[in-house]
Amino acid sequence: MNARERFLEVCSFGNPDRIPLAVGGVRPATRRRWISEGLPEDVDVQDYLGYRHCSIGDVCITSSPGEGFLWKPDPKAINLGPIPPFEYRILREDERYRVWIDSLGIVQRGFQEDWKDGWSGFATRVFMEFPVKNMKDFEEMKKRYNVNDPLRYPKNWDQMVKKYKRRDYPLSMTIRGPFWWTRDMVGLNKILTGIYREPEFISEIMDFCAEFHVGVLHRALDDIEVDYVIINEDMGYKKGPMIGPEAVKKFMGNAYKEITKFFKDHGVKAIIIDSDGNVEPLIPVWLELGINGISPCEVAAGMDVVKLGRKYPRLIMMGGIDKRKLAGDKEALREEVMYRVPPLVERKGYFPRVDHAVPPDVPLENFKYFISLLKEICGWAD
Fold it and tell me: Does domain 3-81+132-377 correspond to CATH entry 3.20.20.210?
């Protein structure tokens, strides 16, 4: 099997020859530690530890704002951000704090420590002001999300299509979901109060999320087959979701239905919500609305992929391995991996990875051992 066939076989709960790992690279702070422990500065960790060929190996063809304060569109991908973006600039700073406005127009404050040696990959921030405060602001914001802007697609898109049609690897898209999208515009507080005080306003922003993404991506999905889509949401706390199931149905249901129908009509096999925190109460709603996968399944928030796999037998899952265990001793790490991965490989529909980005308290030697365990269990042993 090639990488694409293997990926699709897992998504269909079939019998791949080997299980692809959903383990990618690492964030800057973690990489800096590993360089001090022997990782060559000019070598990617996937190559150094020999697991690039074991990974999903996908290519993402969209450039969608995630961490907006550092986001710059990828010129080789479809631009799903604001055009033009807001001008990124530092508004003020002192020895401890930095206040800046990001490319999405959000004013935020963070610790200088997070940028001491270049961005760490992790940042604790206070969101101070959001660009959309009322309908007038929203109408102005919509001008930056013109689906027909010629800058949305790379200039060599036709050549890229020819290449993608010959591929033997999965092709993916990442988009902001209606919750994340609306939060970037109005902020979390206004979402949570707005569903009671300004329900039509909140609904209109969430519906526009679907309208925009379907409008922009129609050309791409008419041209090529995409294998899976990640919908970024991040709508969970440690104890539960930020918005309840009934509110999701009421305010986000139409957007999710439009998005998932569009992707499924174009042959997309896996539509996966990516959210930290405990989002288990939302899984039945997501399944009902056409979403068939979740990631990264944060263990500290109570997301146990073994139990979830039993409860939702056709739910595709990525992640669920406790990142905190990678920082301890190898015995505890092995115990964690053996509890999660073998039963899920047997259950099918699972891609192994940790439950978030690998933090810098994880030694390189532990991560190497972690990769060796996954390779052994998933059929990649040398």
Answer: yes
